């Protein structure tokens, strides 16, 4: 299987050839009670099954009719779900409750997002229930964003701690694009034991370690990772109402506290012996205001950490110094070695930057020059 074939499966997940029906579920914001004037930090919603149709097109048309009717009655719609189920089967054991497919629409009926594999127990561990990643462009949030989490009959504030669920490219590289040794190095001990290389490749192409539950984003709603939970991607929404300055500062503080608590993982120095370079290297994870992924190298040959000499260098196929007019105190040849080390380790450095792996993982997986 080529990457393009894998990508096509991810974008167009296979479905069982069975008759299906579609449920249109309206989620409405409940009126505020007991003199409450602000919806945040949490508010109630209620769900209504408003229609069952034969086709998606019928479901979307009925949804637009419902929106028009509800505006006449001044009801405040939160969003819509259109779920697909197989006809004539037991579906009360649906894994994640998302059916064969789930589509998310905003209060005006505009499409927002969808799932990329079946969540039914009957499809689990089959080609129909394998999550192969999401297109990067469907990531609606980034690390540090304050978001709304739809949890049953309640919507509450939280902070996203990463940029989104696994991408198609990440799923390919972490499973199908890995050798047996690389997979075992990531903790999949005994993977493919007793198989020939050809049998192992066939095994990878017919299996996956991800399912509907992996289409999720970690969020926090308190100071520290002990307040975190993993939320299905379609249950995370942008802010609907104006957020007060006090609440914004509180949730921004939660995220800062998390960063400080994980400081040993979010930033780390790597010795000369670790990289094979003549200077000390620092690796980082993305902060709220960071746009360009970087590492930093020490602009000196000292064996002691000297933070005032650190120079940022972009993580890319052509690493560039981002600080203008820097006078290098190392040789051009040694700078070229740093340049090549970044290119050689670009993928794991980007994974670390995007909260996918820890600094310890970087030390285990990086390649020396």
Helix and strand topology:
Blueprint: H1 3-11, E1 20-29, E2 42-53, H2 56-72, E3 77-86, E4 101-105, E5 111-114, E6 146-151, E7 154-160, H3 168-176, H4 180-185, H5 197-206, E8 216-220, E9 228-232, E10 236-237, H6 245-261, H7 263-266, E11 267-270, H8 272-275, E12 281-284, E13 294-298, E14 310-314, H9 332-344, H10 346-353, H11 359-365
Antiparallel strand pairs: 1-2, 1-3, 2-7, 3-4, 4-5, 6-7, 6-10, 7-8, 8-9, 11-12, 12-13, 13-14
User: SS-based structural class?
Assistant: alpha+beta
Shape: globular
Helix percent band? 25-40%
Total of helices: 11
Count the strands? 14
Q: Describe it for me?
A:
The protein is α+β, with helices and mostly antiparallel strands. It has helices spanning 3-11, 56-72, 168-176, 180-185, 197-206, 245-261, 263-266, 272-275, 332-344, 346-353, 359-365; strands at 20-29, 42-53, 77-86, 101-105, 111-114, 146-151, 154-160, 216-220, 228-232, 236-237, 267-270, 281-284, 294-298, 310-314. The strands form two sheets. Strands 1, 2, 3, 4, 5, 6, 7, 8, 9 and 10 form a ten-stranded antiparallel β-sheet that branches. Strands 11-12-13-14 form a four-stranded antiparallel β-sheet. It is globular and about 70 Å long. The model has no long low-confidence stretch (mean pLDDT 87).
